[in-house]
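Researcher: Here's the sequence for the chain we discussed earlier.
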Amino acid sequence: MAWLVLFFAGLFEVVWATAMKMSEGFTKAVPTGIMVAAMLLSFILLAWSMRVLPLGTAYTIWTGIGALGAFIVGVAVFGEPLGFLRIFAALLIVSGLVLMKLATPG
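Model: Thanks. This is the structure I predict for it:
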């Protein structure tokens, strides 16, 4: 259950990072409100998962999901460039997440 909660914490990290971008420096109220709500939910879920999972594992997985998700949103929604090195870097993040999961008992 902690892994599922951690996964959703990572997804909410992507939501708040995206909303932060859309807030245009906190000048738009709705995206700013979404950002704050998603940030709180992300932190609460991360904290809950850390009751069971080791700190290093939980934080690494959380930031990795956020980084990969923000990369995907950046390319898909904001038209950021997609080149070989960026794809390779994203694959390295995925491999790190998989290895961290495999290295954690439970």
